[in-house]
Amino acid sequence: MKRLLTLVVVCLASCALAQTGTPSKLQGKMKLNAGIVTEKLEETKAFYTSVLGFGVSFENEFYLLLHTPNGEDEISFLLPNHPSQQALFHKPFQQQGLYLTIEVDEVDQIYHELKKKGVEIEIDIRDEAWGDRHFAIQDPNGIGIDLVTHTKQ
Question: Can you tell me the distance from the alpha carbon of 45 to that of 63, in angstroms, rounded to the nearest whole number?
Fold first, then answer.
C-alpha cells in the first residue's frame, strides 16, 4: 500500500510539473513561420503589401517571404509542385480550414483605413464577450484574416 501511495504521489507530481510549463528538451528559441502553398504569389504579394502594409523579406520565382510592418512576424508563400521542393510541399492550399489572426493596437483605425481602400469586409467590426474587438477580411487565397485588438474586461 505504501509503495502504491508513493507511486501515485510521484505520478501526480510529474503531471503537475508537466502542466506548470517547466521547460522540456524542446524549449529554447523557436520561431513560427506559417507557409501557404499557392499559385497566387503576385496577387498575394500585392494584397499583403498594399492592404496590410507587410514588407518583403525575400522572394524569388517560386517563394515569397513577407514580414509584418513591425518586422516581428513572417509568413511565406510557395508555388505548388516546384521541382526544388520535396513532395510534402507540393500540394496547393484548398481554400478551407485556415485562418490568420493579426493582433493590432487600434483595430478601429485599421478597419476604417481598409474600408476607405475598398477592401471587402467579411465580418463587420464587433465586440466579443471575451474581450476582443475585431473584424475579418479575406486574402486572395481564401484565407480568413481576423484583425483583433484585445480590450480590457
Answer: 11
What is the Cα–Cα distance from 67 to 104, expressed in whole angstroms? Answer: 14
Helix (H, G, I), strand (E, B) or coil at 49: helix
* Closest listed residue to residue 111, CA positions, set 96, 99, 90, 125: 125
Whole-structure pTM value: 0.79
Contact 43, 140 (CB under 8 A): yes
Cα angle 110-140-73, degrees, rounded to a multiple of 5: 55
**Residue 137 near residue 114 (C-beta atoms within 8 A):** yes
Residue 66, H or E segment? strand 63-67
CA distance 52 to 87: 31
Tell me the pLDDT tens digit for each residue of 1-24.
333 333 333 333 444 445 555 556
Question: How many whole angstroms separate alpha carbon 55 and alpha carbon 69?
Answer: 6
Task: Kindly give the residue spans of alpha helices, DSSP state H, lying in 63-141.
Answer: 107-116
